[in-house]
Specification:
There is one protein chain. With about 270 residues, the chain is mostly helical. The protein has three domains: about 45 residues, no CATH class; about 90 residues, Serine Threonine Protein Phosphatase 5, Tetratricopeptide repeat; about 100 residues, Tetratricopeptide repeat domain (Serine Threonine Protein Phosphatase 5, Tetratricopeptide repeat). It contains twelve helices and no strands. Helix 7 runs antiparallel to helix 8 and helix 10 packs antiparallel against helix 11.
């Protein structure tokens, strides 16, 4: 029994060395046909990094030939499986452009969008890839309305939209929180919250955005000069009314009522003076 195990181990090691030897020889001195054949073999064996190195060598020789359609898709898929999502997105994009009539076009269009999504960082960082993913998913949804992946594409689209909404909301909150050291940031916060509400109709963050928008108007009243205070009181009351009109049972209503009473006191003091 032990002898059989030893022989099996020797055989396995021998196969491994032969495989490595074949790869090294073909990579270094193999013909383009041999490299292409081995690249496909490595791809099918899920050895994507090795497949990519071989594909990189053969692409110039196969450009414009029938095999190039298959090569370009495998290059994109290999990058995706290696988690090089930005590179995968690029190659899937190129595939859809170069081979619009391919049977793989729908899959490539979806994977392009999905790759951009996976390359997209958290909402606190630059959202370039998030925007690319949104555009790519919208393009896919428009191009393939009967796709089996339509529901999944819509789900990804909504998640990406919410990431942008979250990004905008956090920017608004940052402006608000830093306004104590720079009063101009109250106005910046108000602009950001207005844009969030107008650009993302139906956003789940609307209630909280309206609340912080009202708080910014309230705080502006408190720090205002006598000359600017009347108009800012009017704006603050309008902001409160907008919050209550949209969310009459808002979870922020108790605190908002308290802030409104402070604004009313400021208004009364103005009348007295």
């Amino acid at each position: 029994m032990r002898k059989i195990k030893i022989l099996t181990l020797i055989f396995s090691v021998s196969l491994l060395f032969n495989s490595c030897g074949e790869y090294s020889r073909t990579l270094g001195k193999g013909s383009m046909a041999d490299r292409y054949k081995l690249a496909v073999k490595k791809y099918e064996a899920k050895e994507y990094a090795k497949a990519l190195r071989l594909f990189e060598l053969v692409i110039p020789s196969y450009r414009g030939k029938p095999q190039m359609e298959r090569i370009q898709f495998m290059v994109a898929q290999s990058n995706f499986n290696e988690k090089s999502y930005a590179t995968a997105a690029y190659h899937f994009d190129r595939f859809t452009i170069n081979y619009p009539k391919s049977s793989k076009n729908e899959e490539a269009a979806f994977l392009s969008a999905y790759s951009y999504k996976l390359a997209s960082p958290s909402s606190s960082l630059d959202q370039t890839d998030t925007n690319k993913a949104i555009i790519a998913f919208q393009t896919f949804i428009d191009a393939y309305p009967d796709s089996d992946r339509l529901e999944e594409a819509n789900k990804h689209y909504r998640e990406l939209q919410f990431k942008l909404e979250t990004k905008a909301f956090e920017i608004g909150k940052t402006y608000y929180k830093t306004a104590l050291t720079d009063f101009r940031n109250y106005n910046s916060a108000i602009v950001v919250f207005d844009n969030l509400i107008n650009d993302f109709l139906g956003t789940k963050l609307k209630e909280e955005a309206l609340y912080y928008r009202f708080k910014a108007f309230h705080d502006l009243v408190i720090v205002s000069t006598e000359r600017k205070k009347p108009n800012r009181i009017k704006d603050a009351i309008a902001a409160y009314e907008k919050l209550v009109r949209n969310f009459p049972k808002s979870k922020f209503l108790k605190d908002s009522d308290k802030l409104l009473s402070e604004i009313k006191k400021e208004e009364k003091q103005l009348v007295k003076s």
